[in-house]
Design a protein that fits this description.
The protein has about 70 residues and is mostly helical. It is built from three helices and no strands. The longest helix is centred in the first third of the chain and has 29 residues. The chain is rod-shaped and about 60 Å long. The relative contact order is 0.24.
Length: about 70
């Protein structure tokens, strides 16, 4: 579970939030009409990428540590 938590945290933080946010902003910049809400959501995803990655990792790491330390 600990390794799964690390993998999940990296996936959510790096791929979904950071890379996905960058792609969303670039798509809006290249579009004919820019939607402010889509740009704001993309920037928010970029800024909160580490927080979301950390929280998603903790969701699996803490139970894994609890299981590993139990008798």
């Amino acid at each position: 579970m600990i390794l799964g938590g690390v993998a999940l945290g990296l996936y959510v933080g790096v791929w979904v939030c950071l890379v996905g946010g960058i792609i969303a902003v670039i798509e809006q910049v290249r579009a004919d009409e820019i939607e402010a809400a889509a740009v704001a959501w993309g920037v928010a995803r970029i800024l909160c990428a580490s927080l979301f990655g950390y929280l998603s990792a903790i969701a699996l790491v803490l139970p894994g540590v609890g299981i590993a330390s139990s008798d």
